[in-house]
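>> received
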Amino acid sequence: MKSLENKVGLYKKEMGTGFEEEIRDLTKKYINIVDHGKLKDLGKKWNIVFEEDREFDILAIIPSKHKILVVECKDWKINFDIREIKREIKKFEGKDGEINKHIKRCQAIERNLGSILEYYSINKVPEFSVIGLFVTRNVKFTNYLTLNIFNSYDTSEYEQLLLELIEKEN
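>> returned
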């Protein structure tokens, strides 16, 4: 039974990685500065030392709008059973949940905003803001969370958000 659970876990991870790449490509379609990876690796590039090694699915910078999007991607399309979706949603809450991890990612970016913008040759302005959000393939889960501080988008809603940001830019 453990072997089957391991195989299912690996399959989910592969599916999630493919979804991250899909959303990253979609983001690049509208935004020029898009990055991703482990925080410690990005820190080396940005000349910052991070204590924690959190992973960023997508970090997108829109200089003209003074915004940084910190995007967490979740692909739940293989979860056909509502009980499994509920189990996945529970992973978002609590001290070690996905929401808390995402808060810490966003805080790390906010604390180091000057160095990050400098790396991309962007002048820091006081009103630069960091926006954390979640993108899922087809399940809008934030309605089910008790702590709902991030916006959640499915793929088409996320693309609409990008279009709105770019439209306002021009």
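>> Confidence is low (pLDDT under 50) at residues 6-16.
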